[in-house]
Amino acid sequence: MTKRHAIQFSLIMLITVSFFAVTHLIYANIILAWNKSQIEDLAARTILRTELATDLAVNTIISIQTRGQTTCSADTIAAFKGYVRSVGALKDIRMRSAGSECAVFSTDHLQTDLDAMDSWESGLNSTIQLAVLTGGKERALSVQWKGRDHDVVAVISTGGLLFDLVPSGLRPALSMQVTLSSGKQLATYLPDNYPQSDQSSASNELLFTARSKRYPIKAQLRIDKNSFAHWNKKYSRLVDLLVSMIGLFLGFLAARALFPPLGAIEEIDAAIANGEFTPYFQPIIDLQSSQISGFEMLARWIKPDGEIISPGRFIPLAENFGRIDAMLFSLLRSAGLSLASELRANPSLKLTFNVTPAQFLDPTFLPRLLGVLKLVGLPLKSLVAEITERQEIADLDLASQTVAQYHKYGIRIAIDDAGTGHNGLSSIQTLDVGTLKLDKIFIDGIVDNQRSRQMIELLVNLARQYQMTIVAEGIEQPEQAVAALAMGISEGQGFYFSRPIPAKDLLSLLDEQRQPLVQNNCPIMRKKSSRDLSIAS
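RE: above sequence
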């Protein structure tokens, strides 16, 4: 295994393991959040059930008051027995009136003396008070209506209040306790072999508390941390396998992106050495005069067998792996051999070429560029370096200083794809550039898209303010050329005028343009129907 392959394999494994771990971590956090909501809901349902039991007692007392059953008469006792028989959870009804005390049943195993009960506690309604009746291990909820001349107490059984609320999967690990606000125990659920409460056990438990808004009641649920973390957490081997496969796939994609097949880079190196990268040129038209005012140099990879490789397949590789400088210099050498004499003879023409922001800010790039240009005899004042907006200019101050260095040698600067990239209007305002090239995305809507027209107007006005030439890229229809001229755009390029062409075809067009003709001197425009476009009119 080569070092390159070892790095690729390590990267794939790292991403796979990381994806697996992160996925499980996310899953575990989702389960913990779900479990937390389930336990909080269980605490709320415990309070609700206790409130309903209390409401049952209060409604019974209200019925007694409404019917005037406020003395310890035989009829009242008989009525109380009817209430107890009809309401299953109602354990007893007691009354104290005019110095006498009575109850439906004799409950010797529970405290029967009303004054001997635990301290009464009240909620929002102070006339309704709650207390705990105790007798051995049995407990009951006493709900008292405190009247002026009599007190009525309804006793509710709490023995089965909690058990069926506990999820079966948590019964060995969850304890529940319902108390009054003072802490007096009303109902309790403890699993078998539940340890006595101490500091060590409390540190291993999670506590959830809920309180009633109407009555002095609270519920406390304690659960073992480990059981809580593993509740509902069931991993499927099939899911683990699927996650691992996704991680491997992502790792493979990342490795391919960071380490593309070595053959592609070697092919680019060989193509540069063999001169397979050929400059093509797209004419730039003066929209007012319909003359060719310049041309943009574009890269084409033409293999020995005649196959043409799309720039989208090799330009990103060249940029990412440090081959873009060598490719550009190779293209400029070819362009110089073909066009240097034409540019020297016709100084009004301009040759534009693309430069990435990284190249532009590289302090070694300009000296190397000047060396190539001097070698092939390209006149510096005929050249325009286009800085693309699709990549960020990391340091605008340094970029401004670099523009001045280019100007020192007579090379002009243009901002390509204006309005679409990372730098916004800041690069236009900061950099002393002479040309602004509007991206095709705006030109596509120049005829009938109001937002595109508004953006174009903004850029045109800004360019006028800084005395910049404006070029419309991507013109494909005659109506777009007419609209561009009407909006103050001085130059244009695109498939409507011409596709990128080899140097010999470009020279032929320039020769035809110099021929004296009565009408349009531009050979490209002569091929257009006068019905389609009459720009100069």
